[in-house]
Specification:
Strand order of the largest sheet: 5-12-11-10-9-6-7-8
Oligomer: single chain
Shape: globular
Structural class: alpha/beta
CATH class of the largest domain: Alpha Beta
CATH topology of the largest domain: Aspartate Aminotransferase, domain 2
Helix content: 40-55%
Bound molecules: pyridoxal-5'-phosphate
CATH architecture of the largest domain: 3-Layer(aba) Sandwich
């Protein structure tokens, strides 16, 4: 009988109890095959021998023997009993001298040469991998998936999917499904003071595609762009992928420092900003800075990319209108996403572009991926038009305010003055400021070991920041998860002997 068992690493191990081949040998070969063909990726930790033995229904000795053999041959590293890993580099000789078992895919070797642009884009492997993990506290940028109105959503999905008309099934307008473009424009006016006609709305598969499109359509390689520093790594990556020279511009309590940008690179072609809720610091850009930035853009004939990713969730203070509404010179490209207001896997976002750029953006978009899925757009259009969207946003504002309060209170109780978490007025994350001398990468590493995700501020910085911080997302986690994770974070930091016991 053949048993196929999925281990925690999704590895499928076929073991045959009816042959004479020893089980240890079969297990050894199955693991070796999986390591060589990449099913067990480099750096992955193997299950503990006891757990794997239980899953496979074999003795622990069988597993230990297989592991020992692989360790001796260099296919694994570490120590049986205290963590065994697939090594980052497999010894070349091993791959070459061994006769690979039949059906085995050749092990990935040296990458063939890429284009210069390809090399830069391929350098984002870590960024790509970071999207794959399940949301766990305090990973930022994820909305309350537990509070999404799926009943309503499913009704709308069923309505459109049951017997869709032909126009929803054929190719559609690369600019977006007209009813959705109208619904977005109708929402943005009153909600964000964005001035636009539906024709200016280009529906995309998320803000990320907007950044890519902007770089392709408006910039040439070696053009300069101001980037908020600290800032959004995916925006940085998109521009770097287009060979744009990034000019880091510091952010203070009023947002992007326009004077500093002007001093560093007055003739930049573009600036990327998150004025409503600076990513990651959380500050709101003051009106005087907004006006100064628009004035600079007008004089420099530069483009302002306004990323308004989570401004709908404002739970305190007076809402500040989007910069786009202040722009009299057609320099602002407004970028919105449904990743926070609905959910990220929807892959739906949009640009609002000045009227004289619409045709160029729509034509360019059509050659990249033609269009966004029309049925999805139809569902979202109804969600907006029938009032579900605004109702959901209102409920989420209350929920996020509560979740933030829970986080701030728990951090104060468990970590006192050692981690300063000040409540923000908008969004799904706050910055936890570490006490002096803490290296935020070390703190983040300690958190990871305790199962808590707390991205260090330094990973968002181009130039070093004067104080260390941890990015704490709260949107997706209930109060029990938040309190529990804060306790674990506090104890992880303490056990690194860096915090005084409270
Ligand atoms: C600053 C910022 N902009 C935009 C987005 C949304 O990107 P997308 O629409 O591609 O999901 C995010 C998501 O985390 C973000 O943090």
């Amino acid at each position: 009988m053949t048993r196929r068992v999925r281990t925690g690493t999704l590895l499928t191990l076929p073991l045959n109890t009816r042959t004479n081949a020893p089980l240890f040998r079969q297990l050894y070969e199955a693991l070796q095959r999986s390591i060589l063909d990449g099913t067990l990726p480099r750096g992955v930790r193997l299950p503990a021998t006891r757990g794997l033995a239980e899953e496979l229904g074999v003795s622990r000795n069988t597993v230990m023997n297989a592991y020992e053999q692989l360790l001796a041959e260099g296919y694994l590293e570490g120590k049986v009993g205290s963590g065994t890993y697939v090594p980052r580099t497999l010894p070349e000789e091993m791959i070459q001298v061994r006769e690979p078992p039949r059906q085995m895919r050749p092990a990935p070797r040296k990458r063939p040469p890429l284009s210069r642009r390809g090399e830069v884009l391929a350098g984002n492997a870590k960024l790509a991998a970071s999207s794959v993990y399940m949301p766990r506290p305090f990973r930022a940028g994820i909305p309350a998936l537990d509070a999404f109105p799926f009943e309503t959503w499913m009704r709308l999905v069923a309505r459109h999917h049951r017997r869709p008309p032909r126009d929803l099934l054929s190719y559609g307008d690369p600019a977006g499904y007209a009813p959705l473009r109208r619904a977005i424009a109708a929402h943005l006016g009153p909600a964000r003071a964005v001035h636009c006609d539906p024709e200016q709305v280009v529906v995309l598969t998320g803000a990320q595609q907007g950044l890519d499109l902007i770089a392709r359509v408006l910039l040439d390689p070696q053009d300069s762009a101001w980037m908020e520093d600290p800032g959004y790594p995916s925006a940085r990556a998109a521009l770097q992928g287009a060979a744009i020279r990034l000019v880091p511009v510091p952010v203070d309590t009023e947002g992007l420092d326009v004077a500093a940008g002007n001093a560093r690179c007055p003739d930049a072609r573009l600036v990327y900003v998150t004025p409503s809720h600076q990513y990651p610091l959380g500050v709101t850009m003051s009106l005087s800075r907004r006006l100064a930035l628009l004035d600079w853009a007008r004089r420099a004939k530069a483009w302002v990319v306004e990323d308004d990713y989570d401004s709908e969730f404002r739970f305190a203070g007076r809402p500040l209108a989007a910069m786009q509404g202040l722009d009299r010179d057609g320099r602002v490209i407004y970028m919105g996403t449904f990743s926070k207001t609905l959910f990220p896997s929807l892959r739906l976002g949009y640009l609002v572009v000045p009227p004289d750029l619409v045709e160029a953006f729509v034509a360019s978009r059509s050659v990249i991926d033609r269009q966004t899925a029309t049925l999805t757009q139809a569902v979202v259009a109804d969600f907006l038009n029938e009032g579900h969207f605004l109702r959901h946003i209102r409920r989420m504002r209350t929920l996020y305010r509560e979740r933030q309060e829970t986080l701030v209170r728990a951090a104060k109780r468990e970590m006192g003055g050692e981690l300063e978490v000040c409540p923000g007025e908008t969004g799904l994350h706050v910055m936890g400021w570490l006490c002096e001398k803490w290296d935020d990468r070390q703190a983040s590493h300690a958190a990871t070991e305790a199962g808590v995700k707390a991205t260090p501020l330094s990973s968002y910085c181009i130039e070093p920041h004067e104080r260390g911080g941890l990015m704490l997302g709260f949107g997706a986690y209930d109060s029990r998860q938040i309190r529990d994770s804060i306790r674990r974070l506090a104890s992880a930091l303490r056990s690194h002997n860096r915090l005084r016991p409270l």
